[in-house]
Amino acid sequence: MSLRASVTSDLYFDNVRLPDSARPPHAQGPHGPPSCLKAAILNEIVDLLIHC
Description:
Layout: H1 32-51
């Protein structure tokens, strides 16, 4: 028998308006910001692995 632990969270943006200049490069549609966030998290993990 094994146990798996996971962290679950929700992120909500209600009535948020940003100018086009604040948009991440190459981000299109609703999948743009989450994909940028995933890339940033992955970069942090790789950085930690390199420096440990």
